[in-house]
Amino acid sequence: MIKFIEESTEYLKQKGFNNPEVGIILGTGLGQLINEIDIEAEASYNHIPNFPTATVEFHKGKLIYGTLGGKKVVVMQGRFHVYEGYTFQDVTFPVRIMEKLGIKTLLVSNAAGAVNLDFKKGELMVIDDHINLQGGSPLAFKGVSKLGERFVDMSAPYNAEIISKFESIASEHNITLHKGVYASVVGPQLETRAEYRMLKILGADAVGMSTVPEIIVANHLKLKAAAVSVLTDECDPENLEPVDITDIIAMANKAEPDMITLFKELIKSI
Ligand code: HPA
């Protein structure tokens, strides 16, 4: 894996990805942040050596480098999911590349269902802890200790300083920002009523199909990590309505301006 990481990083450096400070992974319906970036370099996932093989729906995936909020950033436009058939190592390979390029902070966004019924769709939640229900780990492979410690501490996987900065930015800009626990499932099917009941009992406030593998690897690499969910549906097992993925994407798009404000202001402040 080390050789693969070096090859991919070298390719990107030659394309002009020079010393980014912050890495950003953009989730479902949150792509507009790109419009705020002064773009200096781009690389299609299909062209980056050793990147996971792109699927058809993924042909638009690319890595972008530029300036946002006065900082050099590298942004993943489109991420890989376990539900698409990628392995945990595939899903997290780009995090290892971004770290090798120089990032010290990783910011992640995603779309999630609200399990905590005090939270409403269209609102945002900063993640302060997670429950990994994906049935595997991106660190469970033979060479892992060559890249960092195997038994990674997870007592505080989300950076407390960044969380409190997000909270101050939200209050300054009149954005409702909850704080809570994100449970990650594989998907792609949504949850049954019984599964939503279970998630609530387990202590989850939100549920989604991403983020946790990337955050585990960010901790493996000792990056400062933080993540924000846009709550796209309310997961009330006693009144569950069929959800349509187009509704989920529409709700994510609606919350996008708030998410953009949070990310931009946060980056300015670090
Ligand atoms: N469950 C899982 N993933 C999701 C959901 C959900 O309800 N909403 C958005 N992503």
UniProtKB/TrEMBL annotation:
Enzyme class of the recorded protein, top EC level: transferase
InterPro entries per UniProt: Nucleoside_phosphorylase_d (IPR000845), Nucleoside_phosphorylase_sf (IPR035994), Purine_phosphorylase (IPR011268)
Molecular function via GO: purine-nucleoside phosphorylase activity
EC number: 2.4.2.1
Pfam families, per the entry: PNP_UDP_1
Keywords assigned by UniProt, alphabetized: Glycosyltransferase, Transferase
Alphabetical list of Gene3D superfamilies matching this protein: Nucleoside phosphorylase domain (3.40.50.1580)
Metabolic or biological pathway, per its Swiss-Prot or TrEMBL entry: Purine metabolism; purine nucleoside salvage
Highest taxon of the lineage: Bacteria
Domain Nucleoside phosphorylase: from-to ranges: 22-268
Role, per record: The purine nucleoside phosphorylases catalyze the phosphorolytic breakdown of the N-glycosidic bond in the beta-(deoxy)ribonucleoside molecules, with the formation of the corresponding free purine bases and pentose-1-phosphate.
Family: Belongs to the PNP/MTAP phosphorylase family.
PANTHER family: METHYLTHIOADENOSINE/PURINE NUCLEOSIDE PHOSPHORYLASE, PURINE NUCLEOSIDE PHOSPHORYLASE-RELATED
Protein name: Purine nucleoside phosphorylase
Source species: Winogradskyella marincola
